[in-house]
């Protein structure tokens, strides 16, 4: 694809294809490269490839054309200057934490509403190496400023929309605040995708994704990706080579293919989510229906400001009656599945108390706003009317 100021929709379809293009015939569908090594035409060339002074492939732990095609597409979509793809979203977050150069004694600032395993990664692993994780409410800008002033964290990490209560953070204000205190910013863009949020354009340093979710979009490939400014290139590639974290070529191919339909899938999933949220709210069956584009959601003004008409593809419900009512609800669903993921073509529900937030005490969950009746619905591509009917019949049963 010739260089041009292409629109996001065009980049989604064409991005990265040139990496695997062959002359004079090139397959319209990109090829998969399972090879673990590459016979380079001359030792002089291999020397340059190994030194990283020219792009190329030598050994698949360092790079692979199928992976590179996916990475190049993501670099374009996130307006990044460098990037790497790895085996999972968790691996991407770990790699980003390495890339910012955390040292023993450094503070690391984490949003309290981050994905639970991201919080555990900081406390269970990085803390062992002397890093001090500090978990705060990023909606409280004054509180964040206070920590920045007092502890000078080397980096902060947050998600723009929280899970499962869908609180929206003022990402631009947080990034500005961080830059005033020379704190590097990592944004997990999994739930927002490049269609809703562009953290690097807003000034963040690194973006990570669990590509397992919306990017792949079909629930059949795990992967992660880290994108960022050029200054992170060496550390990201060092991690990739030495920790052996590279994404597999088959997964890369599936994830790259997923990107081509991300635009239509995600837009439809967001529209379905809004329709489902409005109908479930009007049913009067639930203690709460959370969706950022419902006017009574606490983040509604920020959601409108940042996202316009796309509010994400997750709706969260508070079912009256606590755990037994939720079990009954899940057991009576006929269409909506029960699985611990989002971003699939299928609508899936998750009960945070036994899944994503099982490691928190009931008191900690309540402090976050998660009750024993909270259920997350990750909206898929079925008819929203069918999903609404199924949820209502399961609630009444
Ligand atoms: C927001 C977010 N970030 C990261 C991850 C980790 O991704 P993976 O499961 O691909 O390691 C998840 C997984 O659910 C997630 O929801």
TrEMBL record:
<dbReference type="GO" id="GO:0030170">
    <property type="term" value="F:pyridoxal phosphate binding"/>
</dbReference>
<dbReference type="InterPro" id="IPR054542">
    <property type="entry name" value="Cys_met_metab_PP"/>
</dbReference>
<feature type="modified residue" description="N6-(pyridoxal phosphate)lysine">
    <location>
        <position position="213"/>
    </location>
</feature>
<dbReference type="InterPro" id="IPR000277">
    <property type="entry name" value="Cys/Met-Metab_PyrdxlP-dep_enz"/>
</dbReference>
<comment type="similarity">
    <text>Belongs to the trans-sulfuration enzymes family.</text>
</comment>
<dbReference type="GO" id="GO:0018826">
    <property type="term" value="F:methionine gamma-lyase activity"/>
</dbReference>
<dbReference type="GO" id="GO:0005737">
    <property type="term" value="C:cytoplasm"/>
</dbReference>
<dbReference type="InterPro" id="IPR015421">
    <property type="entry name" value="PyrdxlP-dep_Trfase_major"/>
</dbReference>
<dbReference type="GO" id="GO:0047982">
    <property type="term" value="F:homocysteine desulfhydrase activity"/>
</dbReference>
<dbReference type="InterPro" id="IPR015422">
    <property type="entry name" value="PyrdxlP-dep_Trfase_small"/>
</dbReference>
<keyword id="KW-0456">Lyase</keyword>
<dbReference type="InterPro" id="IPR015424">
    <property type="entry name" value="PyrdxlP-dep_Trfase"/>
</dbReference>
<keyword id="KW-0663">Pyridoxal phosphate</keyword>
<dbReference type="Pfam" id="PF01053">
    <property type="entry name" value="Cys_Met_Meta_PP"/>
</dbReference>
<dbReference type="GO" id="GO:0019346">
    <property type="term" value="P:transsulfuration"/>
</dbReference>
<protein>
    <recommendedName>
        <fullName>homocysteine desulfhydrase</fullName>
        <ecNumber>4.4.1.2</ecNumber>
    </recommendedName>
</protein>
């Amino acid at each position: 694809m010739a260089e041009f100021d292409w629109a996001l929709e065009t980049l989604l379809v064409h991005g990265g294809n040139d990496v695997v293009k062959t002359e004079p015939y090139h397959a319209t569908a990109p090829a998969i490269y399972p090879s673990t090594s590459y016979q380079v035409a001359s030792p002089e060339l291999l020397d340059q490839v190994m030194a990283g002074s020219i792009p190329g492939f030598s050994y698949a732990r360092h790079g692979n054309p199928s992976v590179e095609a996916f990475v190049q597409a993501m670099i374009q979509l996130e307006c990044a200057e460098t990037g790497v793809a790895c085996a999972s979203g968790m691996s991407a977050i770990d790699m980003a934490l390495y890339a910012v150069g955390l040292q023993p004694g450094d503070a690391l600032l984490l949003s309290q509403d981050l994905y639970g395993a991201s919080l555990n990664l900081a406390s269970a692993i990085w803390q062992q190496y002397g890093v001090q994780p500090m978990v705060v409410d990023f909606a409280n800008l004054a509180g964040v400023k206070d920590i920045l002033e007092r502890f000078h964290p080397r980096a902060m990490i947050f998600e723009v929309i929280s899970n499962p209560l869908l609180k929206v953070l003022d990402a631009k204000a947080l990034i500005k605040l961080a830059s005033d205190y020379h704190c590097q910013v990592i944004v997990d863009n999994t739930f927002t995708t490049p269609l809703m949020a562009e953290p690097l354009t807003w000034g963040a340093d690194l973006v990570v994704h669990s590509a397992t979710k919306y990017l792949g979009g079909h629930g059949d490939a795990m992967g992660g990706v880290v994108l960022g400014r050029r200054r992170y290139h060496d550390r990201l590639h060092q991690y990739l080579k030495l920790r052996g974290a590279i994404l597999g070529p088959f997964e890369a191919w599936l994830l790259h293919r997923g990107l081509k339909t991300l635009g239509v899938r995600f837009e439809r999933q967001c529209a379905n989510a809004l329709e489902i949220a409005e109908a479930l709210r009007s049913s009067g069956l639930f203690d709460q229906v959370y969706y950022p584009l419902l006017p009574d959601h606490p983040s509604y003004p920020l959601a409108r400001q940042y996202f316009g008409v796309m509010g994400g593809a997750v709706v969260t419900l508070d079912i009256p009656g606590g755990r037994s009512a939720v079990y009954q609800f899940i057991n009576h669903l006929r269409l909506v599945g029960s699985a611990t993921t989002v971003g699939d073509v299928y609508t899936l529900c998750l009960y945070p108390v036994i899944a994503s937030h099982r490691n928190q005490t009931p008191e900690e969950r309540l402090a976050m706003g998660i009750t024993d009746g909270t259920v997350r619905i990750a909206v898929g591509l079925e008819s929203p009317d069918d999903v609404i009917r199924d949820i209502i019949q399961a609630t009444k049963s």
